[in-house]
Amino acid sequence: MPIIIAIIKQKEYLLIFIDNDSNCQFDHGVNQLILKQPLNLDYGKIYLRAGRRHYIKFYGDSGLPRRHFGHIKYCSNDHLTHNMYQISLNQQGNYRFKPYSIDLLPPPNLEVMVGEPLRPIVTSI
Length: 125
Hints:
Blueprint: E1 3-8, E2 13-18, E3 32-38, E4 44-49, E5 55-58, E6 70-76, E7 85-89, E8 95-99
Antiparallel strand pairs: 1-2, 1-5, 2-3, 4-6, 6-7, 7-8
């Protein structure tokens, strides 16, 4: 039977359960609850993105999240980028921690001489 990881109830709980009826929802008395973890987030929000689904399903035959890869993202309420991050999960079940980053691009009117590499332009605020 597949194991489901979901964030439910307005992002208040992380729920992990065995989905015995394969409807991708937790049903009391039907599914087996493994973990119900309150998130208790006072300073940010957590989001689970897995395509158009609100869950990630791990299959019992392999333990892999076939076709259910995605990421869990934490965003702080104060919008400070050094407090934001995401954990990405691929089809093979591998995960990567990705701190928030901004790719600095040159302004659109930058003229570059042939053979000169582009360098990011950093300005202080």
